[in-house]
Amino acid sequence: AADSSGGPGAPCRHHAQLGACESRAKYREGWRPRAVKVYTINLESRYLLIQGVPALGVMKELVEQFALYGAIEEYHALDEYPAEQFTEVYLIKFKKLQCARVAKKKMDERSFFGSLLHVCYAPEFETVQETREKLQDRRKYIAKATNHRDCFVLKKVEGPKKTASKNSDQDCPWSTSGSHVASNRDQSCFTSSAGVSHNIAYPSGNQNESLLTYPYYDNNCAEISGYFGQNTSLTPSVHPGGHTPPASLMQQRMVPAYNGIDRFMPRTTHLQERKRKREEGNKFSLIGMSEDNTEVVIGPQLPEIPKVDMDDESLNTSATLIRNKLKEVADSVSTSVEKPESSSAKPLVKQRRRI
Amino acid sequence: MELGRLEYLQALVTEFQVTDSTEAKEQVLANLANFAYDPSNYEYLRQLQVLDLFLDMLTEDNESLVEFAMGGLCNLCLDKTNKEYILEANGVEPIINCLSSSNEETVVSAVTTLMFLTTPRSRAQTTALPVVECMLRFSLSANRRLSNLASIFLQDYCTPPQVEEARNFSKHTAVGIPLPKD
């Protein structure tokens, strides 16, 4: 056990070439025989280990082959790594993970000077910082790849400032940066930040509110900033002036803040969101809907238009007023859209067909 | 091809549910876990309740099923919706339990998944004292992958007081989460 968990240069279990799986059902047999293995970000690496290189002094040619897939930062032979007779083992470090990925895919099991290469990832050669950057890149990639969904929600909520999306308050572990727009996820969210304070920009514009970095405080601020981000445009009547200093509201709204975020989505957004989902859902009608016949929800759960008690008389009154106003607006919007197209004056929502 | 892919994933899930063969279950689960790496599949996987499938597999006796399920969760948990779903489903607990596994991949996936699932609301759970204490021990491991990840966990996801508390805690107790065997 000690050997295989040794430092870089020692054989690791994840280097082992597993036998190809023979027993796959036809429909899921790939082009090439493959072993049963799951690739996670922990297994992938810019470092590739290449076994089976014939001991013919062909390092230059080997590196040239691999360089076809991207810039190489480092390479050298691994003399201490166990190798089959007449073969050598090499380590190649790519500049980019994506290049390493492609190189591995293309070069694994390829014949090279008469010998079959075995290429695998070698994450054990990474420094802590390299591993950290690898994880951060993965975060950024996912954020970008799924960003369109968050942007959809954000765009619908008009506000003077587009800050403090749910994105940042959910994903920043503890050093929150509410000032980041959804698409602008840079490193400062995730750097180790003992003792460093971040300015959290509230939509109300109090840019200079520099808060303490104790996690508890950050937790609440993150949620509050999200709260502000969502409802600024819709509830000027609830928050006098629309630019209430964060501090006073923070004290009042600590606990219900998170629930409050979703409450003030405009009615029109629900309609458009549901229409879009309906249109998409029709494409997948072969799977039907979920058992209880509700629409399959994609993306953050938008609540039903609530009749919710906010534990406060005046807030409830205001909320009811707003709700009614929204309904009025929504009805008039959908009516004006419908009119040229159909003779019915009914709002869109009543004609919704449930599958 | 969107429709083709959904059908394919559906077929995988169905095979998993229907088959008696352990081998087939493992293959299918690994397949789904690999699909979970690509964000373009997330909506389908959610529709097919694959997230629940992964979470359910974490308590299986079969080590491979646990390994693949944990890998699948690691792959898809960074997406906001998936993250919220896993947290709502109390997924943190079984993932923490995976830290005790003797399977290296399972442990490594669990460490990363806990990092990815850490939010202001969940961090009380994901960085609870026993977890931090476990990470301290992992950070001293000869296994470089594990020690790197544990170090990042301690540096980036825990406060200095938390780490200090865990250090003091481990001085006084013998009970802990064991290192994975190889």
Automatic annotation (TrEMBL), chain A:
Keywords: mRNA processing, mRNA splicing, RNA-binding, Spliceosome
InterPro entries: RBD_domain_sf, RBM48, RBM48_RRM
Protein name from the UniProt record: RNA-binding protein 48
GO annotation, cellular component aspect: nucleoplasm; spliceosomal complex
Family: Belongs to the RBM48 family.
Domain of life the protein comes from: Eukaryota
Key word RNA-binding present: yes
Compositionally biased tracts (Polar residues): 173-185, 332-345
Keyword RNA-binding found: yes
Disordered: region residues: 162-185, 328-355
Gene responsible for this protein: Rbm48
One term of GO molecular function: RNA binding
Function: As a component of the minor spliceosome, involved in the splicing of U12-type introns in pre-mRNAs.
One GO BP annotation of this record: mRNA processing
Automatic annotation (TrEMBL), chain B:
PROSITE patterns hit by this protein: ARM_REPEAT
ARM repeats: 49-91
Gene3D superfamilies to which the protein is assigned, alphabetical: Leucine-rich Repeat Variant
InterPro entries: ARM-like, ARM-type_fold, Armadillo, ARMC7
SMART domains: ARM
Domain of life, source organism: Eukaryota
PANTHER family assigned: ARMADILLO REPEAT-CONTAINING PROTEIN 7
Protein name per UniProt: ARMC7 protein
Gene encoding the protein: Armc7
